[in-house]
Design goal:
Largest sheet: 5 strands, antiparallel
Radius of gyration: 16 Å
Order of helices and strands: HHHEEHEEHEEEH
Number of domains: 1
Strand content: 15-25%
Strand order of the largest sheet: 1-3-4-7-6
Structural class: alpha+beta
Number of strands: 7
């Protein structure tokens, strides 16, 4: 997952300010779903940090949909581009991926992909994040769309957030599936999703 050109990927400590400001987007096109209010955002972030997707979505005025998780140990096999090259040189310990959907207030569907990449050392996790944050360097591949009951998702890198926690690099990206969502809303969703805690699913499932 690589960020859009000119974007700034920040740690969780300052993420709240960034996504709150995103909620101030003006003059959205008619029929476009816009971000949650500033008052609902802290509740959504807190719920995400607890791992409660339902509450996190509801706090943004939306509904959580189907989701699926999977653990792999061959990270390079599930990536491409320079991200894959780095993982070939620096194997991870585990890769946990989550794909879920959110239904917005107008009935549109957003796909959200989150990946937790665990490395032997914090320095390796930081270097992975540095590479992944650069536009055009490839990404961790999302789970198949069928995991969440949608078509396969092509990640554009337009609505991306990342963070590092110890030896863990976390990346999240939101993509529209149906309906019409503002860029600020999709950025906000990615900013909330990246706060989800690392919960390991059964291996290979």
């Amino acid at each position: 997952m690589a960020k859009r050109p000119g974007g700034l990927v920040l740690g969780a400590a300052v993420l709240a300010l960034v996504v709150a400001n995103a909620g101030e987007e003006q003059d959205a096109a008619p029929g476009t779903t816009t971000p949650a209010s500033a008052s609902g955002l802290p509740a959504s972030q807190a719920a995400a940090q607890r791992g409660d997707l339902v509450a996190a979505s509801q706090a943004m005025g939306m509904q959580a949909g189907p989701s699926g998780r999977r653990r792999d140990t061959d990270c390079a096999a599930n990536a491409h581009g320079q991200v894959r090259d780095y993982l070939l040189r620096t194997p991870c310990r585990t890769l946990d991926r989550l794909l879920f959907t959110i239904r917005d207030s107008r009935g549109g569907t957003i796909a959200v992909a989150v990946a937790w990449v665990d490395f032997p050392t914090p320095a390796q996790a930081s270097e992975f994040r540095r590479i992944d944050d650069i536009w055009g360097t490839g990404q961790i591949n999302p789970l198949p769309g069928a995991t969440a009951g949608i078509p396969d998702v092509r990640l554009s890198g337009q609505h991306y957030r990342s963070r590092r926690q110890g030896t863990l690099a976390v990346v999240a990206e939101a993509e529209p599936v149906t309906g019409r969502q503002s860029d600020a809303l999709l950025d906000q969703i990615a900013g909330v999703a990246v706060l989800l805690p690392h919960v390991a699913p059964p291996s290979g499932k």
